[in-house]
């Protein structure tokens, strides 16, 4: 049991699970726009996410020469492998897709790397975190797969991009509720500003446009509407039961599993 827990912790803290969520959203885009599976795109999304998240979380441990644990050493090795794989997959993508990827992963870098003299990085700019992360996720999982195949940026694409942005924003707000006690007050997260109760109400409110955007597509898929209802209910429940007292696994595993759960629902519905 101890060995299994260590493996799970390495999987979660090594950002492999969040990378799976990003990959799930890429596959959702493939399904929604009837795209064939693209290994370089999927590989870049997974490996790029894993490396960038680990870089954001752990670069300060090395920069400030903190104690490096055995688990962190393993994560570091896996992150280096992920980086190399991401570069290989990146070089296999079309030039326009590469430029798109540079834009969104560049924003991720700005989130971590110091850019202003008095502020360590963009993460410390009040309130910008949620929008920046949601923008990057929406761009990588929606726009990049479509740009790679030369799909036009039509209304349906904009709707799906907006829907994806809202979903990620909602999930981040759940994270911020759980992390309320640990977050630096200077971050000015949404729960810090408006409180936990109002953040939950905001999340429940955001689920409404997330669902309703589906009705504005050029072709409304009834099965997708049913799938999204289940997703909305599940996300609403995770929001309602989120508290700062919750265990970290609540977000690190369960909340981050929501995109994977969404993909699973779609696969199940398409086989009925």
From TrEMBL:
Protein name: Prenyltransferase
Organism encoding this protein: Flavobacterium alkalisoli
Lineage of the species this protein comes from: Bacteria, Pseudomonadati, Bacteroidota, Flavobacteriia, Flavobacteriales
Record field: transmembrane: 12-33, 39-56, 72-93, 99-116, 128-149, 161-180, 201-219, 225-242, 249-269
Keyword line: Membrane, Transmembrane, Transmembrane helix
């Amino acid at each position: 049991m101890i060995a299994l827990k260590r493996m799970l912790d390495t999987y979660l803290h090594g950002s492999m699970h969040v990378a799976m969520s990003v990959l799930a959203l890429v596959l959702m885009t493939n399904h929604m726009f009837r795209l064939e599976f693209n290994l370089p795109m999927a590989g870049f999304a997974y490996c790029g996410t894993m490396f960038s998240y680990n870089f954001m979380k752990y670069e300060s441990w090395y920069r400030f020469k903190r104690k490096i644990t055995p688990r962190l050493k393993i994560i570091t090795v896996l992150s280096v492998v992920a980086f190399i794989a991401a570069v290989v997959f990146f070089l296999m993508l079309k030039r326009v897709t590469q430029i798109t990827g540079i834009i969104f992963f560049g924003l991720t870098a700005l989130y971590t790397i110091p850019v202003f003299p008095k502020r360590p990085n963009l993460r410390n700019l009040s309130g910008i975190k949620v929008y920046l992360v949601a923008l990057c996720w929406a761009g990588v999982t929606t726009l990049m797969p479509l740009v790679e195949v030369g799909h036009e940026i039509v209304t349906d694409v904009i709707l799906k991009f907006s829907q994806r942005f809202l979903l990620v924003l909602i999930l981040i707000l759940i994270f911020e509720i759980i992390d309320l006690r640990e977050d630096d007050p200077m971050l000015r997260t949404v729960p810090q500003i408006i409180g936990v109760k109002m953040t939950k109400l905001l999340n429940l409110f955001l689920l409404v446009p997330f669902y309703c955007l589906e009705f504005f597509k050029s072709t409304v898929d009834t099965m997708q509407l049913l799938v999204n209802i289940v997703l909305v209910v599940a996300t609403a429940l995770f929001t309602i039961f989120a508290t700062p007292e919750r265990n970290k696994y609540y977000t690190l595993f369960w909340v981050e599993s929501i995109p994977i759960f969404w993909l699973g629902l779609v696969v199940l519905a398409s086989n009925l």
